[in-house]
Design brief:
With 292 residues, the chain is an alpha+beta fold. The chain is built from 6 helices and 20 strands. The two termini are 27 Å apart.
Amino acid sequence: MTDGSRVDVAIIGCGTTGLMLARLLEMEGLSVAVVDRSRIPIGFPRATHLDDETVRAFQTIGLQDLEKGFTPTAAYRFYDAEWRIVKEFVWSQGVTEQGWASDYQFYQPDWEAINRGYTEEGENTSTYYGWTIVGLEDSGDDVDVTVREASTSEETTFKASFVIGSDGANSPVRGLIGASQVDHQATHRQLIVDIHPLVGADRLPGRDAFIRGGIRNPFTYLMTAEPRLRFEEMLRPDDDAATFERSEHAYKLIEPYLAPHEYRILRSDVYEWRSLIADPWRVGRVLLAGDA
């Protein structure tokens, strides 16, 4: 593990994009510093779906054995308000030319935990878990990166030849480089409820996902990483997010399939989907990646 005083690349944000970058860069012999505001991985999944090319990328960093724990996808059905099938297709296309199945579901917290462990073990990687980015100073030859530990307010500065901001949709790095955003006006809100069933979910179609439309709040069901299940409900513009996020609403939403004592809620919150593109993606030696 490097002392972190100077590195080739600093990566701000350790979701899937940042951790993949860290592993790939270290494999190329580069020194890396990774910075993330969370001391431990976020305990609920954000991403759930993988395709064959993504698993091929995992294979590149030696994680092909994780594929055994991924959940293959099955059918996808679209229903109208009367539960009549409007459209149906087989989601997974089987093994492709990439050597892996076309579609899987996975559990992001476990994937991040494993890759955080690898970054901690990396001889050329320094880790700042529980730290936030507070300053970037690009001299033209390198970048002074100032980070602050959330629990102590301690600050430290190190140098990096390049900085990559993979720190999510609310990216502080994007703000520090003064990038604006182009809004493509495709915003909508979705209640996401993830659960871990404690009993069999016989009234649900297992790995077959579905969407029910033609109702006020279209409803989605899918299995994520088995046995975990996800339920989604689209909000209308005049719906109150706080009302949808209350626990009694989640229980009522799932009541047709499972009783409240038959599962553990892993997540229940309203997520806002927005179609935004940063402009520019790069300023000098600082670049943006992923959701940033």
